[in-house]
Design goal:
The complex is a heterodimer of chains A (403) and B (259). By secondary structure, chain A is α/β, with parallel strands linked by helices. In chain A, 44% of the residues lie in helices and 18% in strands. Chain A contains 16 helices and 15 strands. In chain A, the strands form three sheets. In chain A, strands 3, 4, 9, 10, 13, 14 and 15 form a seven-stranded mixed β-sheet that branches. The longest helix of chain A is centred in the first third of the chain and has 15 residues, at 26-40. The termini of chain A are far apart. In chain A, 62% of the residues are buried. Chain B has one domain (5-257): TIM Barrel (Alpha-Beta Barrel), CATH 3.20.20. Chain B is built from twelve helices and nine strands. The longest helix of chain B is centred in the first third of the chain and has 14 residues, at 2-15. The chains are: A alpha/beta (403), B alpha/beta (259). At the A-B interface, strand 2, helix 1, helix 8 and strand 11 of A face helix 5 and strand 6 of B.
């Protein structure tokens, strides 16, 4: 395989990506690109970032051998990349700390962010508290209902949380409002986008900050088993944990990569979030990528039990990796994710986020086709404490329905 | 038709010394049968051209008034295809230039080439696409040019001088000078720097310069038009139509152009 150099100068991954934003935002987008390029070349930026990653966030996260799960499935050796052990309980903070440091470098004092499950909002509020930045977070009303505790967490951390009632009141609508807020306050505000989506250079910046996941996994796998894993599975909404995990392995074609989308109630229903399985290319939130949309180009609502995967788009680099066939993008239903959520809790004493449970569920399927000499890494992108109340209600509802 | 019609119409009005006034209306708000009816009303009320908004599910450059109008239009079943068909029906019975304002995704799904051809067939004279900066314009610009449709560029107050110059020099039909740092919708007043920005653009542009965003009354319209060639009013017009208050629309246009 040729060396992988995406994105190109225009922020494209093949035909995907780009900068489909109002002219008003172009100077901010270009300023960010410049600030990021300068930061990358500045050893003091890397040193500062690494210091926070180690001392504040608690990296390196373990690559944990899940012996009980491996035994239960009877296939390959299964490892969990424990992003749930990061400060704030998910991978999101790898990106927010990097972007908050960039905000300071650009001389901006305010940050706006969107959040779905609340994990990115909490991770943003956390670093803003740490670095003395003002923080406003847009969150869909439906998500506020699903994730009440995360709203309170953000407020405790000093952030202002603003409910978004437009559209379906979920992540897509929160991104719209965050973008509008940025349009209205671009002079003094940086937008810390939470996934590998949005106009260039966001998909690249978020990927690079999240690549610490894949880089550590690569090194840990070599140390533990003297070889790279045979397969890696990560969940994909916008796709930041997956992109951060996959990117350092993109040229290692012997490593099979799987990005697991949320199939909701099934990809043949109207209630799913499997963009690559059920969508088509188009422009949303500043980028050209696969979207759930109708034939007139109106964006459709996504649906998933997991707020963090409930997004009708996907990062443009995933669209590229999908079309070239480098990464496979299967999907997992709500029901399968719920089973995996309980399975991991019972076998390993680890409650995964519902998002990550999609990756666990697919890994269980994949393991059946693999042999004991092989190894499989699951990116356990977050912890499931935030989901416990919702899962309890859902399981009670299901058992009442069956009774 | 197309670019030539738009440019010659605007030049003719400009030569009378009156400010240009382009109202924005959301196509399909109030019903699909209202599209041609409202165009006719705005033409009769003294509009220089009409900016016809195509509803989109995720309009990030728009404030709440136009967002809500777009949702109503979508609920009425409005699509780009239907709007083009409606506009085509009255092609020969109107003189006023028609400009479509649409986000890029509905055009992408329609197909750029087909879109440009159907615009030409429908008597659409210009296109405004708020989420296409110069970095992404090549493909769509080529198709519009092939069909003789004016591709109206947007300038922003955040744009540095070299970008402004390029935008001002490439714009066709007129130059849309976004005159607030924000989304569409009413503003109490415009900043001092808006005026110098408009003056600068007027000097650089080969086509008329119109200020838009945040303009809601004749006083604001006149004070901005003194520094450029005219104004675009969106949210306020959309709001008046929604309230059924057409008298106020006639007054807003009339008071601005007859000064």
């Amino acid at each position: 395989m040729q060396s992988y150099t995406f994105p190109d100068k225009l922020g494209k991954y093949g035909e995907f990506g780009g900068r489909y934003v109002p002219e008003l935002l172009m100077p901010a987008v270009l300023e960010l690109e410049e600030a990021y390029e300068a930061a990358r070349k500045d050893p003091s930026f890397e040193a500062e970032l690494n210091n926070y990653l180690t001392e504040y966030i608690g990296r390196t996260t373990p690559l944990y051998e899940a012996e009980q799960l491996s035994k239960h499935l009877g296939g390959p050796k299964i490892y969990l990349k424990r992003e749930d052990l990061n400060h704030t309980g998910a991978h999101k903070i790898n990106n927010t700390i990097g972007q908050a440091l960039l905000t300071l470098r650009m001389g901006k004092k305010k940050v706006v962010a969107e959040t779905g499950a609340g994990q990115h909002g909490v991770a943003t509020a956390t670093v803003c508290s740490l670095l003395g930045l003002e923080c406003i977070v847009f969150m869909g009303e439906e998500d506020i209902r699903r994730q009440k505790l995360n709203v309170f967490r953000m407020e405790l951390l000093g952030a202002k949380v603003v409910g978004v009632s437009q559209g379906s009141g979920t992540l897509k609508d929160a991104v719209n409002e965050a973008l509008r807020y940025w349009v209205n306050h671009v002079d003094d505000t940086h937008y810390i986008i939470g996934s590998v989506v949005g106009p260039h250079p966001f998909p690249r910046i978020v990927r690079d900050f999240q690549s610490v996941i894949g880089s550590e996994t690569r090194q840990q796998s070599l140390e533990k088993q003297g070889k790279l894993p045979d397969a890696i599975v990560a969940c994909v909404g916008g796709g930041s944990n997956a992109m951060g995990m996959f990117y350092p392995f993109v040229e290692d074609t012997e490593v099979a990569l799987y990005g697991v989308e949320a199939a909701g109630k099934g990809v043949d229903t109207n209630e799913h979030a499997a963009t690559l399985t059920g969508g088509s290319p188009g422009m949303l939130h500043g980028t050209f990528t696969y979207l759930l949309q109708d034939e007139d180009g109106q964006i459709q609502e996504a649906a998933s039990i997991s707020a963090g995967l409930d997004y009708p788009g996907i990062g443009p680099e995933h669209s590229y990796l999908h079309d070239t066939g480098r990464v496979a993008y299967p999907s997992i239903t709500d029901e399968e994710a719920l089973e995996a959520f309980q399975l991991l809790a019972k076998l390993e004493g680890i409650i995964p986020a519902l998002e990550s449970a999609h990756a666990v569920a697919y890994a269980c399927k994949l393991a059946k086709e693999m042999s004991p000499e092989q190894s499989l890494v699951i990116c356990l992108s977050g912890r499931g404490d935030k989901d416990v109340e919702q899962v309890k209600a859902k399981l009670e509802e299901d058992s009442n329905g069956k009774a | 038709m197309g670019k030539h019609k738009l440019e010659s119409t605007l030049e003719k009005i400009k030569s009378t010394g009156k400010p240009l006034f382009i109202p924005y209306m959301m196509a399909g708000d109030g019903g699909i049968d209202q599209i041609n009816e409202r165009i006719h009303f705005l033409e009769e009320s003294g509009a220089s051209a009409i900016e016809l908004g195509i509803p989109f599910s995720d309009p990030v450059a728009d404030g709440p008034v136009i967002q809500d109008a777009g949702q109503r239009a979508l609920a009425n079943g409005t699509t780009l295809k239907i709007v083009l068909e409606e506009v085509r029906k009255q092609k020969d019975s109107r003189n006023i230039p028609i400009i479509l304002m649409t986000y890029i995704n509905p055009i992408w799904n329609y197909g750029y080439e087909q879109f440009a051809k159907d615009c030409d067939a429908a008597g659409v004279d210009g296109i405004i696409i708020p989420d296409i900066p110069m970095e992404e314009e090549v493909e769509i610009a080529a198709q519009l040019s092939a069909s003789g449709i004016a591709f109206i560029r947007l300038a922003a107050m955040t744009s540095p001088d070299e970008r402004l110059e390029k935008i001002a020099q490439t714009s066709e039909g007129f130059l849309y000078a976004v005159s607030v740092n924000g989304t569409t919708g009413e503003r109490a007043q415009h900043e001092e720097r808006t005026l110098s920005y408009l003056k600068k653009l007027t000097k650089q542009s080969k086509v008329p310069v119109l200020a838009g965003f945040g303009i809601s009354n004749p006083e604001q319209a006149k004070s901005l038009a003194a520094y450029c060639d005219g104004v675009i009013v969106g949210s306020k017009i959309v709001d008046f139509f929604h309230q059924g208050n057409r008298g106020e629309i006639e007054k807003l246009i009339g008071d601005t152009i007859h000064s």
